[in-house]
Every structure is written in structure tokens, then in C-alpha cells.
Amino acid sequence: MKQIYEEYEIVVVLLSLLIAVVAAMAFYAAYLVRCRRQMSYRDSLTGLPNRQRLAKHFEQTFAGYREGYLMIIDFDRFKAINDMLGHDMGDLFIQQAARRLAQAASAGQQLFRFGGDEFLIVAEGGRAAAEALAAALLASLKQPFQLHDSEFMMTASIGISLSPQHGSDRTSLLKAADIAMYASKSAGRNRHSVYDEETKLAINRRHELERGLRKAMQLNELAIHYQPKWDADAGRLTGIEALLRWNHGKLGPVSPSEFIPISEENGMIVAITRWMMYEVCKQNRTWQAEGLPKVCVSVNMSIRVFESGMLGTMVREALADSGMDPSDLELEITESIAMRDIEGTIVQLREVKALGVRVSMDDFGTGYSSLGNLDRIPIDTLKIDQLFIQQSQVPSKQAIISTIIAMARHLQLDIVAEGVETEEQILFLQSRGCRVMQGYFYGKPMHAVALREWMLAV
Ligand code: C2E
Ligand code: MG
Ligand code: MG
Hints:
Structural class: alpha/beta
Strand order of the largest sheet: 8-9-11-12-13-14-15-16
Number of helices: 17
Bound molecules: ligand C2E, magnesium ion
Helix content: 40-55%
CATH topology of the largest domain: TIM Barrel
CATH superfamily of the largest domain: EAL domain
Number of domains: 2
């Protein structure tokens, strides 16, 4: 009897042990599942909640806010770190940036890493709270980042959407904040923008122009207009400026001040300038062959053309194809082109000047060139910006115009006044020793056929 009892006790103990082991295993499996789930909600590089966690956060927390905001933070030059310093440094930067953002945000402002160099903050509050946080984040990013031995400056572009104004679900708020972030980028980066309808229309238009520009050349939507430069003392044509025109298939005429910056951003300007230089030289050569005045035609240059290192090739090709005299081609550069990389610009300009091509400084007086460098840049002509001419009845502007003319004379540079529209402006400019004028008074930019007629009529 005792033996049966003992055997029974052993079975009970074994069974209890078995139950305990199974329970422990089940508990451990549940723990593993929970860990894995938590891991899938965290970004492995920064430890921050990730994109997956955002969806949960919207369901569980954001839905309860009376008003809230979503903020996208995108770094402006992160690609440069990866390209220049390698991906390990890129990772190091992301970790440091995450720490900085987390320090600048307070407890209720939930930070996420959204992928790549994009971070996101979601919080309760209205526009004022969102903008205050954005300003604090931009300020904290101003301090240089220390990546091993290198110091790196970094800025960010921030886009903000507000709930309920711009929607209350995650998708609408993300879309609106993304549009606002692009608005910050196109307004010059290192700033924040709050979404609005106008921004949306502007961004859509920009995207449409960007897409359209890629096809504009094949679709023959780009045209070149020509504006005369007139010697008022001698009463004759002395030059022509070529100006780009774009007639968009759907949007109609688009101003160069709108599409040139876009073409500079996407790099298209290099191909456009190459095509333009070729066309302009051919056109001028045709006019000359017809017996029309032999004058210099100028093409506007972009910083991107200098950066591409293609300037010399472009000029040589255009001259060889057209057979035009090199001294009948002029390149219009700006102060910002000259100052961006002054030594590099000088080298490239010397190369084309050695061919006999002329160079002028466009919009002079409005850029940021240091006067001390003006004599180092190989130019032939200064073009006084039309802003001064338009206010040439104001004594202080008269003083500036007179000084530019005197300086050009001392540096043995020719001078052209831009945007001349009235007889008074002409008389004033002549009285100060400027004889070459360009502006609506003499002729607006016009199609080649119209300029030919204009030349025959004067
Ligand atoms: P810009 O090179 O200074 O060209 C002069 C601008 O002044 C032209 O504007 C011309 O139409 C305008 N203009 C000429 N005379 C008068 C006048 O009497 N009164 C007024 N109010 N305006 C006058 P547009 O054609 O709109 O070009 C604007 C700017 O876009 C140009 O300024 C130039 O910086 C840029 N651009 C135009 N074509 C090209 C190009 O082929 N390549 C590059 N890189 N930039 C270009
Ligand atoms: Mg110009
Ligand atoms: Mg100009």
C-alpha cells in the first residue's frame, strides 16, 4: 500500500514539473514574440520608434488629441556625407542627429526615424507650438557635428501639417507635411514651412515644370529671342542678347526667372546652354551672311555650366559648327558665378578668352562680388543692372550709376545700361558717359524673324 502511495507521489511530482516546464516555455515564447514585436517597432540604428510604430501611435494616441501636428525633418546635405565620408560616417551622423533632435523635443513630442535621413515628430498642440519646436530644432542643428576627426555643418528643411485643418489621418497629414517640406527646400532650405493650399499649388506647378522641362527641347517648346544693344551716340546696333523663352504645352509661356532656377537644380541648364550657344552662333552667322550688321551676340551663363567644366568644349563646338568669328560671341556671367569659385572661374574664362570670345558681367551692382576682385576676372564689359536705371531720377541711384561708369572707364571696360525705357534715362546716361543701351525703348526681346526686320528697318 505504502509503495503504491510513493509511486503515486512521484507521478504527481513529475507531472507538476512537466506543467511548470511547459508553462515556462510558453511564457518564454510569449516574451520572445513581445521582444521581436518591439524590435520591429524600433529603428536599429538610433533606437527610435520607426515607421511601423507611427501607425500604432496614430491609432492609440494621436486620435485622442483635440489638435495635433506632424512634422517632417529632412537633412539638406546628408547625401554629401555618405558620398564624401562613406556610409559609416553617414550612420554616425544619423545617430548624433537623432540624439540632438531627441534633446530638443520634450516628452510629449514623439520622435520617429522615418527612414534614411528623414525624421518625424508627432505631438499635441497647434500651429504656434509646432513652429516653436521647429525653430528650436533648427537652432540646435546649427552647432557643428563632430564625426571622428571631421567637423560637419548641417541644416535641415522642415515641413509641418496641422490636425484637424489638414486632415486627421496619418496619410493626409504625411502628404501635407511632405509638401510643406518641399516648400522649405525650394525656398532655400534650412527653414520650416507650414502646409497651405498655395504651397500645394506652387509645388504642383513646380513638379509639372520640372517634368515638362525634360521634354521641352524634344517638343520644340524652347525658343530663343533676341534683344538689340544700341549705341546711342553713334546711332547704330552694337550687339544682341539671346534670351531663352519657354512656351509650355499646357501652362503657356513660363518666365525664365521661374524655369531657369529649376533647370539649374536638375542640371538641364547645361544641355540647354549648349543647344542655345550652337543655335545663336548659327543664327548670327546667317544674319551676317545676309549682309546684316556684324555684331556680337551674347548668351547668358549659369553657374552649372562652369561646374560642369564643359564651357571650353561648348564654345569651341559652337564656333566650329557655325564658322562665326569668335569675337562675335559674348558670354554674360554674373557676380555670383564669378564669386562661387573665383580661381576656377578665372581659369575657364581665360580659356575661352584665348579663343577670342568676349565676356561681360551681367546685372552689375546687385550681386555680392567683392570690388577688390573685379580686376582679376577677365571681362570686357560691365552691364549696369536695370534696377538702377529704373530709378535713375533718384540722386543716390544717379551717384551709383556715375560711379559704376567711372570705375568701368578706369578699368578699361565697356559699359552697357540694361532696362532702358525712357528718353530721360538715355539723356542722363549719355551725360555720364554711357553710350550703349539695352531696353524696351529700343526694342523688346523678339523672335529671330522679327529682329531681322527690326535690323532692316533701323
Ligand atoms: P538678364 O540676362 O539680365 O536679361 C535681361 C532681362 O531684362 C530680360 O528678361 C529682358 O527681357 C528684360 N528686359 C530687357 N529690357 C527691359 C526693359 O526695358 N524693361 C524691363 N522691365 N525689362 C527689360 P527675361 O528675358 O525675362 O530674362 C530674365 C533673366 O533670366 C535674364 O536676365 C537672365 O538672367 C535669365 N535668362 C534668360 N535667358 C537665359 C538663358 O538662356 N540662360 C541663362 N542661364 N539665363 C537666362
Ligand atoms: Mg543677360
Ligand atoms: Mg541683366
